[in-house]
Design goal:
The protein has about 525 residues and is of the alpha/beta class. The chain has helices at about 40-60, 65-80, 80-90, 95-120, 170-175, 190-205, 220-230, 245-255, 275-295, 315-330, 340-355, 380-385, 405-415, 430-445, and strands at about 5-10, 10-15, 20-25, 30-35, 125-130, 140-150, 150-155, 180-185, 215-220, 235-240, 260-265, 270-275, 305-310, 335, 355-360, 370, 375-380, 395-405, 420-425, 445-450, 490-495, 515-520, 520. The strands form six sheets. Strands 15-17-18-13-12-19-20 form a seven-stranded mixed sheet, sandwiched between helices. A five-stranded mixed sheet has the order 21-6-5-22-23, with no helix packed on it. A five-stranded parallel sheet has the order 9-8-7-10-11, with helices on both faces. The radius of gyration is 25 Å and the shape is globular.
Length: about 525
């Protein structure tokens, strides 16, 4: 499949008319052909208009039809073959095994949402039958279903060019809900995005769906991105990226005449809490696993363990010594873009130069766009008064915070902003200590794990990849797993509608065969 540098506006492929840009190989800094035309504001509007025109038809296609569409996208992505992997490697600097695994995850997400659609449970059908004889007042007939919210704007992420991008979890869950998608390709991997976009475009065509179900725009400009969020046809936004970028889009969305939700996954330092008995029993082993997680993928994961908390003592000293020894031999790794590399270097330098922070280890120095790992230490008393120490550094750097006692560790946890994950390392005799920490962690994070690290996010039905602000813009939601569909749905109640006007999901004979709550009781199928 060839890469043309064109936008995909519904069924058409056209050249963007607002400037041009090229992808860059982060391992060399060299630009790559072809040149991509940036979408103009008029072209952004055209994509959004097509999505609005497609919405009412797409949202009422049968569940099986919608599920088959998702499965067709998955098959089309696989059919691109090695061309997709090679282009993605060149644009991201990520290795083949990582990208082949990410392609599998992308396809798996699409197939999971196809199963969610066929099941129909996401409709949350509820029926309260009329009770005309009820005293003192009769009860009306009420029926409820979830409907899709409307066209969704999806912003591709830099660190997952497949699984969090054009056909990633935001797009898959929006399609599953019945929402058309206008996807904005990340400027770091426009060729990868076009290949995926054409796979989706072909699936729309083969499924016989209206062309506006999907469009792909590309731009390196801020004005066009803001215009996408501000467009009156867009009903919600999915975003993965920096806190600065996410909050900027949230501001645009909030200032619209009709404000819309922005589901943004942004900033997290993912605390790792090392409890005393676990440190005493296997501190060196934990240190080895910690450094492996910290340096995985150059630390460019939103769940990277950027903060370590523990009570002062010999066990913590041994952990820091072992982790420092491991990290000094860690090779520098290529980062996704020159901009990300520069930001990482600046963040690590600020931490190293902070008067309350000691640098205990740095990894090996690398070449172009390669990040040097870092391990730093501070006292809890200083962490509590210097908010800069809580800032995310997107890369392989972490801060160890030494706490005087359990009470101070608890104060540090209470001081933290919202997080995606928190990991507790414990042994049996740490159980009571961990139990006392759980209420704090439940208020601070979206996922709590034991004796592991947050890197590695399972795509399933019980996963939460979200958390209180600034981890995400809405801590009630997740961007990974089947619950992600809920972001793009809203409930509608129907009162006293005749059977002939009711949607199939709400008819008495249940033609869709979905689970329902009838008069407060769950039906069995």
């Amino acid at each position: 499949m060839s890469i043309t540098g064109e936008l995909l506006l519904g069924a058409r492929s056209i050249r963007g008319t607002s400037g041009s840009f090229e992808a860059s190989d982060p391992t060399t800094g060299n630009s790559m052909a072809p040149s991509f035309g940036g979408a103009s504001i008029d072209q952004v509007d055209a994509a959004c208009t097509l999505a609005a025109e497609a919405f009412d038809e797409f949202r009422e296609v049968s569940l099986d039809h919608r599920a088959a569409f998702l499965e067709a996208i998955a098959e089309n992505i696989l059919a691109i073959g090695d061309d997709l992997i090679l282009r993605c490697m060149a644009e991201s600097g990520l290795p083949r095994p990582r990208l082949e695994g990410e392609r599998g995850r992308t396809v798996g997400q699409l197939r999971m949402f196809a199963a969610v659609v066929r099941d129909g449970g996401f409709l949350d059908v509820r029926i309260d039958p009329a009770q005309p004889e009820r005293s003192p007042l009769p009860r009306v007939d009420l029926r409820l279903r979830n409907i899709p919210i409307g066209p969704v704007a999806v912003f591709g992420a830099s660190n997952f060019p497949l699984a969090f991008s054009v056909a990633g979890g935001d797009t898959a869950s929006a399609f599953a809900a019945g929402c058309p998608v206008v996807a904005k390709a990340h400027p770091a991997h426009p060729g990868t995005s076009e290949l995926i976009g054409r796979a989706i475009q072909a699936a729309v065509r083969s499924a016989g769906l209206p062309e506006g179900v999907f469009s792909l725009i590309g731009t390196s400009g801020i004005a066009e991105a803001q215009a996408l969020v501000a467009n009156p046809h867009i009903a919600a936004v999915g975003f993965t990226g920096s806190q600065m970028g996410g909050t900027a889009l949230m501001k645009v969305a909030a200032e619209r005449p009709r404000p819309i939700p922005v589901y943004a996954e942004m900033s997290s330092i993912n605390p790792v809490i090392l409890l005393p008995e676990a440190l005493a029993a296997r501190g060196s082993e934990i240190a080895t696993s910690f450094v492996a997680s910290l340096t995985l993928g150059a630390g460019q994961f939103c769940t990277n363990p950027g903060l370590v908390l523990a009570v002062e003592g010999q066990g913590l000293d041994q952990f820091v010594e072992a982790a420092a020894s491991e990290l000094r031999g860690a090779p520098a790794a290529t980062m996704l873009t020159s901009g990300i590399h520069e930001a990482y270097g600046a963040g690590a330098a600020l931490l190293a130069d902070h008067p309350a922070v000691d640098t205990v280890a740095r990894g090996l120095v690398g070449g172009i766009n390669q990040g040097q790992a870092g391990l730093f230490v501070a006292k809890a008393a200083d962490f509590l008064v210097h908010d800069a120490l809580q800032a995310e550094i997107f890369g392989a750097s972490a801060l160890v915070v030494r706490c005087a006692d359990e009470a101070e560790l608890r104060r540090v946890l209470e001081h933290l902003e919202g997080q995606l994950t928190a990991a507790i390392h414990l042994d049996k005799d740490d159980t009571d200590f961990a139990r006392r920490l759980l209420p704090i962690l439940e208020r601070r994070v979206g996922r709590i794990l034991v004796n592991g690290f947050g890197t590695g996010v399972e795509v399933g039905h019980a996963m939460v990849h979200g958390g209180p602000f600034p981890a995400t813009s809405d801590g009630r939601t997740t961007s990974v797993g089947s619950l992600a569909i809920r972001r793009f749905l809203r409930p509608v109640s129907y009162q006293d509608l005749p059977e002939t006007l009711l949607p199939d999901a709400l008819k008495w004979n249940n033609p869709l065969g979905v689970e329902r709550l009838v008069d407060g009781k769950r039906e069995t199928l």
